[in-house]
Protein 1
Amino acid sequence: YLVWPLLVAGETNILFGDQASGKSLIALYLATAVSLGLTGLPAGLVVRQSGPVLLYDWETRLEPQRRRIERVAAGLRLPRLPDIHYRKPKTSVAHLIPQIRRDIDRTGAIAVIIDSLGFACGGDLNTPEVAIPAMNGLGMLDTVTRIVVAHHGKAGRSGNERPRLPELLVPIAHRLVMNAPAVPLSMQGLVSGYVRDLKEAKE
């Protein structure tokens, strides 16, 4: 593990759930912990290795992500911001793999965030021609841990029905489902710990 027991080291880990369910914030929380080698995390989470993190953001822009990172740092009362290198890609992740490799070599990154997978693929994750090249490409980045944010639209689901990871992704990723009540207890502790610390920091 890179972060026990959530992020499997050297593998593709998917933070999956509905839109606006906190996946990107959790990814940045974990990236902050890895970047700074934080200890004493909520729910018994343990960072097993520390180092720089790369963030490839297809969804937003630098400033919103920087504000999120600053919020995480404030909630944790950190004296400085984590070593997270931001990139705004202009092509699909399948075509970006050579550039990601160069970025890894240049920064010494040990983890890469992909936010989010649907935009990074540029199509429907349920279709082989879209999902397979992207996931195979990410699998080639075997010197780093991949943290992949992916979301499921609420259309077509009712009540508290659990979001379903596209079947094509199941065999090739260690998945983490974010939505309650299916969210792991360790992740619930992580979220509640962050919210508590953030509230205290604002007071």
Protein 2
Amino acid sequence: GLTSIGYGAFLYCDSLTSITLPSSLTSIMNHAFDDCGGLTSITVEEGNPVYHSEGNCLIETASNTLMRGCKNSVIPSYITSIGDRAFYGCRGLTSITLPEGLTSIGYGAFYNCSGLKSITLPEGLTSIGGSAFDYCSGLKEVIIDSEYVYTNATSKSACGYLLNYATTVKVLSSLVQENHEYINSTNFPNEIRIEGEYTVYSK
């Protein structure tokens, strides 16, 4: 049976809608499914020793890392890491819920997810790779529960870049510092308001 999928094997296969990976598969090279924007279904056959699927997500079992998602993905609660380029080019992705236990988002993870409208960054998130949210032009609302994201949101950082398109940013009020260089009245000039436990900045 098939044991390996090579580098860039299905790169830019926009018409690919479904993948079923066999139990014999033990290696997937980089960029294998990058920019497969039409993908709606991901399945791994039972008995695979390295990967499994749940919620239309391809998951590396040992590390609880989401390796590839699609526009219909529902991320399982036990996922701790979203791998490099996991949702790269998923332009049909309009919403995604990141699990509370998520600690890292890889390089280019949501690159060019232009349909994504809102995202909540959970408290335990401590790492966002470069270009993770580049070209997410539809991302209008960002909700920040993570101290790491808030304190590292600067104009040149991956944390800051994800705010480039945002018209509304909600930050847990317990994290807010009046002198924050990026999330303040200079970048979000409309009146700051309180909504429940959040401080809301808007353009």
Protein 3
Amino acid sequence: VRDTLGLMALEAETWPAYTIAVGYDTSKPVNVMTQRAEDFLYSPVKGDAPDKFEGGGGEAFARFVLEELKPYIEATFPVDAQRSFLAGHSYGGLFASSLVARKPEAFAGYIIGSPSVWANATLVGEVSKTKGAGRPIYLSVGEKEVFDTINMVADADKLLGALTAAGFKVTHRVHGEQTHVMEPNIMFAEGLRVLLAKPKAN
């Protein structure tokens, strides 16, 4: 993402931006996938092992982002608080979608890639009932993100319908030949270009 923004800074058509990434301290023993589930899922889902569930800390993570991280960024860097965006892929895309359903006004726009809609059966309905007010959202998925019991292309299409019905301004892409692992590379580059685009002169 950093390299993408660096190259985008050379283009006159997009605004410059800071990118803040939230990660984990891998110098300590940590199961990153388990921690991602804990932070990004508002409700637990069944894990790999019998009687094991993962996730459920989405509300706490949202409070951290909105009440600690976002105010810190705004106090530390010369950013426009009215033009901050949230981006997430997979579970991160689900988290962003969940925040859209609960507090769409939290960010000026959203980049949602390959959202794990399958992990929250009520998400699409919740999104359709919120107020988009023309807020921009970039939504994408890879063409090859279709698995035995999960069709992320179809799920993204359902989310698209809910976002559109709620009044968001959605840019939707299905990237040909792209897998779940490769999709983030295109998602961030194209999503940032859409949300950071300068108004075209008449």
